[in-house]
Amino acid sequence: MTRVKRGVVAHKKREKVLKLTKGFKWGRKSKERAAKEALLHSQSRMFKGRKEKKRDMRALWQVQVNAAARQQGVSYSVLMGALKKKNIEIDRKILSELAKTEPKVFVKIVEAATSAK
Questions:
Q1: What are the start-end ranges of the H helices in the chain?
Q2: pLDDT in tens, 64-104
Q3: What is the DSSP letter of 72?
């Protein structure tokens, strides 16, 4: 049987790990064993972080819409309930963006939602 030399493959494998840990603190960015351990933990936290990011953004949009709605004399819950009743399907992300960049359009949406039939 022929001899298999893994020097190149092993080196590439180690370089890949170190490339993924670039920017980590202390020896976790340069020492192979510490980098491998740090990578195991960071990858599990990356998954969790992606889920939390969605949660945090939605909470931020709710706060922004609530602040803009209260300037119009309506609370967040009343506004969202009114939007749902009138079948105005604008999500929180767009509402918060409108409240920041286009306040006149946001006022029109609030008026449309809260006006009596």
A1: 7-20, 32-71, 76-85, 92-101, 103-114
A2: 999 999 999 999 999 999 999 999 999 999 999 999 999 99
A3: T
Per the listing, tokens 């170190």 go with 18
- Interatomic CA distance for residues 90 and 69, integer angstroms: 14
Q: How many CB atoms lie within 10 A of CB 37?
A: 13
Contact at 8 Å (CB) between 39 and 17? Answer: yes
User: What is the Cα–Cα distance from 16 to 26, expressed in whole angstroms?
Assistant: 18
pLDDT at 91 (0 to 100): 95
Give 101-106's long-range contacts (Cβ < 8 A, gap of 24+): 103/68, 106/68, 106/72
- Quote the tokens at residue 93: 């992300």
